[in-house]
Amino acid sequence: MGMEQELSKDMYEVSEEESEKIGSVKIADDVVAMIAALAATEVEGVAALSGNMTNELLSRVGVKNAARGTRVEVIQKKVKVDLAIMIEYGFNIPATCQRVQTKVKNAVENMTGLEVTDVNIRIAGINVSKDR
Prior knowledge:
The protein has 132 residues and is an alpha+beta fold. It is 33% helix and 32% strand.
């Protein structure tokens, strides 16, 4: 059984130029989803991912379920990200979504070396604070 056969469909291999290759690096799709989810929740105006906790709470309890509300598809080192987010009331939705798209694209590309082709966002709801 060769190394190529051991790659599961939810993992992909990242490699630099073959001449400098020392070994292989495999990253699970869930890791890419977690990077995207955490990047999205760092944008001002994003209350949370749909069905997810806020970023402050995640930092206290861990990031095991951070990627809930996030789906990624990795095909030939190209990534498509789908996010469902909650927006804080009063924030401009198109501008906030554009900031989320940029932040997610940069985070995933910088941390994985993959090319992000799509960051699709679905607004799952509006978060209205209790003092309103």
